[in-house]
Amino acid sequence: MGTFEHFLHGFNVFMLAYVLVLQLIYTVLAIGGWRAIEDYVRRRPMRDYRSVSESEMSMPVSILVPAYNEEPSIVASLRSLLKSQFIEFEIVVINDGSKDGTLAALTDAFRLVEVGRVPRSNLATQRVRGIYASPLEPRIVVIDKVNGGKADALNAGINHANFPLFCAIDGDSMLDAGALSRLVWEFQAAPETVAVGGIVRVVNGSEFEDGRLAKVRTPRGMLANLQIVEYLRAFLGGRVGWSKSGMLMIISGAFGLFRRDVCVEVGGYDRTTVGEDAELVLRLHRHRREQGKPCRITFFPDPICWTECPEDLGTLVRQRDRWQRGLIEMMVRHRGMLFRPRFGRIGSVAMPYFLVFELIGPTIECVGYTLFVIAVALGVIPLQFALAFLAIALTYGLVLSFLVILMEERAFRRYPGWADLMRLAVCAVVENIGYRQLLALVRMRAWYTYARGNQHWGEMTRKGFGPLLPGGVVDAEGPPVLDPTADPVLAGEAPVAKDAGAPGPNGIGSEQAAFAPRA
Fold this sequence. Notes:
The chain has 15 helices and twelve strands. By secondary structure, it is α/β, with parallel strands linked by helices. The strands form two sheets. It has a ten-stranded mixed β-sheet with strand order 3-4-5-2-1-6-11-8-12-7, sandwiched between helices. The protein has a two-stranded antiparallel sheet with strand order 9-10. A hairpin with a 2-residue loop joins β9 and β10.
């Protein structure tokens, strides 16, 4: 055996060990996520979210909505947010120099008039051109400013937010009616809480009525369904597990609730990174550890934020390139936390994992695919062994994907039809043939775009949330009455067709409960 063959053999042995360790980590996270969701399902009826939503003692929330060229969806998104079943909140829309009709759409829908508003902090931002309020809906404030990017827009929103908690969401997102009360409950139950993230779900394919989500459906397009499975695995199979172990490093920029004073204390969002959401979370961990103060940053699987995902390959590639560049920037800027016991499990476990498996992992994976094929072609690896290894790896990946689909069905049942589950099951298989390899290649290429200093976000075409009623004007009668029947959680019920039953001997629950009849 020559030198090159020895190299191929050694590298493939390394790849085998790498894959085994990675799958072990995925298994631990999935088990932790399952146990956390089981615990939540058992405790859910005892949590009085309705009192949180109605009590005048509840911490009020400022919802920050950065908007850049969001004309198709911004009005429908705000009308959905206004129906949030929470006693006191405001919506601060930050029009970040949109080039389309975003501001005009807001003005027409809410009859905006210019007002004065004194900022409550002085985070650096681009120039604010004007602040507007709605005489029809006093909970809406619109900040019009020079374009500075999403982080800059969020900092402007923090400056003008009135309340101690702020919820950062995307301009194309919708929240479940009871989402705020469930996240606020976390802050009030554990005062050391600094930030809470909620699950983000794909809204593509669902049905709307007057800009509101009426019926959840999976889309017909394969690409969007692949992302649904990916989101479920990332949130239910990943972030729940990281949160359970106190090592959550990422809160999605599409949906998160933060303590305003702590975020101002650390300087707000970093305007020089494309991954401002994850960077802020890691900086909060670092700052609180350095100050010797408690820092609870957690993930809550039930509050739902609905958002559009890319439906064309070009937009998806730009999105994932940006996400990976954000991860690179975050790890480079906070490399001083790596392997430092003073930063606890974040520095000793979570960051090393992200370094090895998320940062350089895509490069290892792409190189591994290439050398694996060469090794098989040269006979360094027997064909039978190669096929067996691929079969085992594929089967294990399918088990994890099916597990998170079962977790979704077990606890939340947001997709009511058998056709929806069948599409997700098919995508759990299909994603292993080309899709995951493509994303690995895109993430590896992100090193190149990062080295070029590319700070471009990449644009995404929005379809919006369906047509509005004629005129598109909100109801001027004031805040909606809190109706506990509109949200099963506020009514003290689980948001599933019926009780999922007690866990079985393996913690999975009874067969009857897991596969109850569906619409």
